[in-house]
Specification:
Length: 68
């Protein structure tokens, strides 16, 4: 069984480097970047901040109000 599995694993590992595409290609930074994420697609906000835009805004407002 091992003589069958090992050659297959060896062939799979010699395929070369995997080319990756950059997911976020924005040149924005700081407040502009945050605004871009919050006004963009909801999934981008979920990935970046682990929360929906309206929850992020509510949390930010609360922290400002409490001077935190």
């Amino acid at each position: 069984m091992m003589s069958f599995i090992l050659p297959i694993l060896h062939r799979m590992s010699n395929r070369g480097p995997i080319e990756r595409n950059q997911r976020h290609s924005s040149i924005l930074y700081g407040k502009k970047r945050v605004d871009d994420i919050l006004t963009g697609h909801v999934k981008n906000c979920l990935v970046a901040y682990r929360m929906e835009p309206h929850i992020f805004r509510a949390l930010a407002s609360y922290l400002r109000r409490e001077n935190l």
